[in-house]
UniProtKB/TrEMBL annotation:
Residues 20-364 form the AMP-dependent synthetase/ligase domain. This is Amino acid adenylation domain-containing protein. It comes from Kibdelosporangium banguiense. Residues 422-494 form the AMP-binding enzyme C-terminal domain. Gene3D superfamilies: 3.30.300.30, N-terminal domain of ligase-like. Pfam families: AMP-binding, AMP-binding_C. NCBIfam families: AA-adenyl-dom (TIGR01733).
Length: 512
């Protein structure tokens, strides 16, 4: 087991912290986009106006409110207002397919459409429209006085839905406040920091991007409206003097590939990765190409345990291969459990289990199997124990390492193969920028084999026989891919930007 003692403390809710900063530094910049800016006073004022409109439209505490709209000032004000009136925030990205939007809206009691956002027709729930905001005249009392109880729901996010109907995961005010407190104190985020908001609003990463700066007295920086092409992203980070940024590795790879060789991001002091296995080859490319000497953090935590539960500061040079998950954040424990429910010994792989008093509220309309993943600690009913479905092991120093998902480990020719570890070895080979490995059936009815989808560095080529020779020196024979497919990019999921392995299984690219 790794982690320190569990404390059970109360933290001010998100609206309360924002209102506090509005009292301390009302004229400090809270949100910027291009040349436009809102101060903390204006943000809290706008949230008060929106809260009044929502209440007048019949939105009440505890109701689920789907908020649809592009990244922007009004969207942030609506999110803050929904939390302030004790409703449950259900973010919905209008850029997603209509079927996905309906999956989200089916779970809501109201829909708030920001600006001229189109809402799917035929809904049986009320729609509230919030256009440009005319500021009120005073602080939002709801925000200033709101300190929610520990079990009060704050938000609802849906999983990606790649294995069926998406599951709704309920987050709590108290747990969100705890995580934001940990992040801003651990990394000393405060006035003067500029934090980028780049993630899809449907991905829970957006909660960290939006509310970390606004509960820290820092500035939330929004890119221009509409999707930003990869080639524009890092130049924007440089020109906006971004100091703190969150990213998914696959998305950040696209930024790096599209960046000019002379580009630098000198103000970026803190880069936080999450969502996928973080590999050393990419980290070293990032540091070399950008001449980056800031701090890089690997974060880990399922949405079910409230955003993030473990962290690891990547050394220089990076730990070879997949980066460790590190140690639990404050007030969290993690251990490895064997198939028979026992704690695994040091170095033994098993399921990662997390315990914290700051977990989520579980799944919405959970099945019996889904409920079984959550248990209550026998010695303290406030603590949630969650079986993640991820595999890992603890080293002799108590550092947690990631061994993949259960379905990422396969047995080929009697040998257990960790697919993400094979990718890490591939990405250390000359000329390979990104790799994704899947198990492919044999069209002739023979045993399945590994297919490696490869994105090559600019100007590079790949000779399969030479690559296999090098891989045989690093991997068991069963772990060396039988097929290599070169592609310009790897497919990603719409919400999170993670590598979409399901789409790779049907990839029809030609063999190399």
């Amino acid at each position: 087991m790794t982690g320190g003692a569990l404390e059970r403390r109360a933290f001010p809710g998100v609206p309360t912290k924002i209102a506090t900063w509005a009292g301390v530094c009302p004229d400090a910049p809270a949100i910027t986009q291009n040349s436009r800016q809102w101060t903390y006073r204006q943000l809290v004022d706008a949230a008060a106006v929106v809260a009044g409109k929502l209440s007048a439209a019949g939105v009440a505490g505890g109701q689920r409110v789907a908020v649809m709209g592009p990244r922007g000032f009004t969207l942030v004000a609506v999110w803050t207002a929904v939390l302030a009136i004790r409703a449950v925030l259900v973010p919905a990205d209008p850029a997603l397919p209509v079927a996905r939007q309906r999956d989200i809206l089916d779970r809501a009691d109201h829909v708030v459409a920001v600006g001229d956002t189109a809402v799917p027709t035929g809904l049986q729930i009320p729609v509230v429209r919030i256009a440009d905001i005319e500021f009120g005249t005073g602080m939002c009392e709801l925000a200033a006085q709101h300190v929610p109880p520990s079990d009060e729901s704050a938000y609802l996010f849906l999983t990606s839905g790649t294995t069926g109907r998406p599951k709704g995961i309920i987050g709590r005010h108290r747990s969100l406040a705890h995580f934001l407190h940990w992040q801003r104190t651990t990394f000393e985020v405060g006035p003067g920091d500029r934090v980028a908001h780049l993630a899809s609003v449907e991905f829970d990463l957006s909660l960290r991007e939006v509310f970390l700066p606004l509960t820290s007295g820092a500035t939330l920086c929004l890119p221009a409206a509409g999707p930003m092409p990869p080639a524009s992203l890092l130049p924007w980070v440089s020109s906006e003097r971004i100091t703190v940024m969150h990213a998914v590795p696959t998305v950040a790879r696209a930024w790096l590939r599209a960046a000019s060789p002379e580009l630098r991001v000198p103000d970026l002091r803190l880069l936080l990765f999450s969502g996928e296995a973080l590999k050393s080859a990419f980290i070293e490319r990032w540091r070399d190409q950008l001449q980056y000497n800031g701090t890089i953090i690997n974060l880990y935590g399922p949405t079910e345990t409230t955003l993030i539960r473990c962290w690891y500061e990547v050394p220089e040079p990076a730990t070879p291969g997949i980066q460790p998950l590190g140690r639990p954040i404050a007030d969290s424990l993690a251990w490895i459990e064997s198939a028979d429910g026992q704690h695994s010994r040091t170095g033994e792989s098993g399921e990662i289990v997390i315990r914290t008093p700051y977990g989520s509220g579980g799944y919405l309309d959970a099945t019996a199997d889904e409920r079984a993943r959550f248990t209550v600690a026998a010695d303290h009913p406030e603590d949630t124990i969650f079986h993640t479905g991820d595999l890992g092991h603890l080293d002799q120093d108590g550092v947690l390492h990631f061994d993949g998902r259960a379905d990422d480990q396969v047995k080929l020719y009697g040998v257990r193969v960790h697919l993400r570890a094979v990718e890490a070895v591939l990405e250390q080979q000359p000329g390979i920028d990104h790799a994704a490995v899947v198990v492919s059936p044999d069209p002739n009815g023979g045993p399945p084999h590994l297919t490696a989808h490869l994105v090559l560095e600019a100007g590079s080529s790949m000779i399969p026989t030479d690559l296999r020779t090098r891989l045989y020196e690093r991997l068991p024979v069963a772990a060396v891919p039988a097929r290599f497919v070169v592609t310009k990019t790897l497919p990603t999921t719409a919400a999170s930007g993670k590598t979409d392995y399901r789409r790779l299984l049907s990839n029809a690219s030609a063999d190399c």
